[in-house]
Amino acid sequence: MQNFNTLINKFYVQNIIFFVLFLSVISLIAWFSHRYTFQADWTAENSHTLSEASVQLLQQIEEPINISVFVGNKELKKQITSFLERYIRVKPDISIAFVDPYINPDKVRNFKVTAEGELVMAYQGRQENVKSLTEQSVSNALQRLVQQQNNTIAFLSGHGERAPDKQRNYDYQRFVEYLKTKGINASALNLITLGDIADNVQLLVIADPKTSILPGEVVKIQQYLAKGGNLLWLLEANSSLHGLEEIAKSMGIKILPGVIVDATTQYFNIADPAIALITQYPFHPIVQDLETLTLFPQAAALEWTAPNDTWEATALLQTLQQSWTETGEIKGSIEFNENTEEVAGPLTLGYAITHMLENEEQEQQQRIIVIGDSDFIANRYLDNGSNLDLAYKLVQWLLSNDRFLQIPAKIAKDTQLHLSFLAYPIGRYGLLFGIPLILLGIGISIWMQRRRR
Fold first, then answer.
1. Between these two residues, 228 and 446, which has the higher pLDDT value?
2. pLDDT tens per residue across span 315-365
3. Burial class of 18 by CB neighbour count within 10 A (0 to 12, 13 to 18, 19+)
4. CATH of domain 149-404
5. Nearest-angstrom CA–CA distance, 202 and 147
6. Does the model's pTM come out above 0.90?
7. Do the strands 185-189 and 152-156 form a parallel or antiparallel pair, or are they unpaired?
8. Burial class (CB in 10 A: 0-12, 13-18, 19+), 17
9. Strands 348-358 and 311-318
10. 411, 198 in Cβ contact below 8 A?
11. Measured between alpha carbons, how far is 143 from 393 in angstroms, rounded to an integer?
12. CATH superfamily of 52-145
């Protein structure tokens, strides 16, 4: 009997120890969960966490950001709070203030709010309204806020150039609209009707003129460059410089005859050999983070010779050895002919040029990009490879916005689930009937086994 009582006492002691340890573990877990957080996003494109581009953008913003959320609905408020917490985890000095639009109509009018759930983001006295609760909308608004407000690009027009506001395949409307989402304004510039290049123009784009530029216009472009203006010059193969020969000579640029033909296109199932592929990039801030190829249709090869010791250039875009400049007709079987003007690869079709200008106050760095192709950012080719990413980085470098060079241009999202013809009914009716029937079968099986006992 004594042994039995001893066992009972041991049993009680073990239970007490177990419950004490169990409560201690639960308390520790609760304490750690309150002080530390851990999240895992297993979606294919990390849909529930910020992209690397947004994280890099937030890390470069030095000052606090204030966000006013105009919402009265409690469920919508929870949804917005959960979404914005992704940004706060990266940048803790983001402050959020909730404003009930039904109680504060004056604030709704002052902030020009038009819909419930709208965000008003403020940074250094500037503000942006965001109506769509998506990462792309919020991150683009942040970038517009921190972007310099005088970022203005002028596209030379009046000579058949690529238009920044047209939807034709060879024009640039899609690229210009993308730049607008990043706080960069672009418009056409006709020097005949508008006169001189305005002082607020930070970048002049000359994209494949078809007719000669008048001498008076050339003088205005030269005056703009002499003041240190930045230039993006997009050329075409077998095309005239249309009056800009002296400008090309002053910066040491020469166009080689012929069209770049690239034999490596066959490895990527590209039928047109006149598309130059760039698969490797030099160490330069513009392209150092590019990892995928860029495509340049009907491109021209370039050569650069330093006019003097104040000019420096980097061969930004170079083809592989399996390329050459084809001066003949690109039809049927073609091959390199060393007895002609043709030049074997590797070939350079893009230069990043810097020029140090001295003024009374300080030295100024002028930035120029010359590329032997104007199609790669056209509406038709913008989505090929990393063309958009490259074009965006070119513009940011030319605008001296170096801190934005590491932010990729595209944010991919796995927002749709595509099922095959067979997978759709299996998934639909399997969830509706299959799983309940399986659970019912398991329950019946367990019930029958118990009855046999």
1. 228
2. 999 999 999 998 888 887 888 888 888 899 899 999 999 988 876 566 778
3. exposed
4. 3.40.50.880
5. 13
6. no
7. parallel
8. exposed
9. antiparallel
10. no
11. 14
12. Glutaredoxin (3.40.30.10)
b/e per residue 290-320 (b: at least 16 CB within 10 A): beebbbbbbbbbbebeeeeeebebbbbbbbb
Query: In b/e form, how buried is each residue of 222-256, taking b as 16+ CB within 10 angstroms?
Result: eebbeeebbbbbbbbbeeebbbbeebbeebbbebb
Q: How many angstroms separate the CA atoms of 76 and 438, rounded?
A: 37
In degrees and rounded to multiples of 5, residue 73 shows phi and psi of -70, 125
Find all residues with CB under 8 Å of 297, minimum gap 6, and list them: 272, 274, 275, 276, 373, 375, 376, 381
Task: State the sign of the Cα–Cα–Cα–Cα dihedral 307, 308, 311, 313.
Answer: positive
Q: State how far the Cα of 387 lies from the Cα of 409, in Å rounded to an integer.
A: 10
Burial zone of 390 (CB within 10 Å; 0-12 exposed, 13-18 middle, 19+ buried):
buried
- Mapped to the 3 state alphabet, what secondary structure does the chain carry? CHHHHHHHHHHHHHHHHHHHHHHHHHHHHHHHHHHCCCCCCCCCCCCCCCCHHHHHHHHHCCCCEEEEEECCCHHHHHHHHHHHHHHHHHCCCEEEEEECCCCCHHHHHHCCCCCCCEEEEEECCEEEEECCCCHHHHHHHHHHHHCCCCCEEEEECCCCCCCCCCCCCCCCHHHHHHHHHCCCEEEEECHHHHCCCCCCCCEEEEECCCCCCCHHHHHHHHHHHHCCCEEEEECCCCCCCCCCHHHHHHCCEEECCCEEEEHHHHHHCCCCCCEEEECCCCCCCCCCCCCCCEEEECCCCEEECCCCCCEEEEEEEECCCCEEEECCCCCCCCCCCCCCCCCECCCEEEEEEEEEEECCCCEEEEEEEEECCCCCCCCCCCCCCCHHHHHHHHHHHHCCCHHHCCCCCCCCCCCCCCCCCCHHHHHHHHHHHHHHHHHHHHHHHHHHHHHHC
Q: Which two tokens stand for residue 305?
A: 């010779």
CA angle 416/290/256 to nearest 5° reads 125
Residues 6 or more apart from 378 whose CB is under 8 A from it?
A: 162, 169, 170, 171, 172
Per residue in 245-293, pLDDT (tens digit) is 999 999 999 999 999 998 888 888 888 888 999 999 998 989 887 878 9
Please tell me whether the peptide bond between 346 and the residue prior to it is cis, using omega within 30 degrees of 0: yes
Q: How far apart are CA 398 and CA 16, in angstroms?
A: 72
Structure tokens at 14: 């073990």
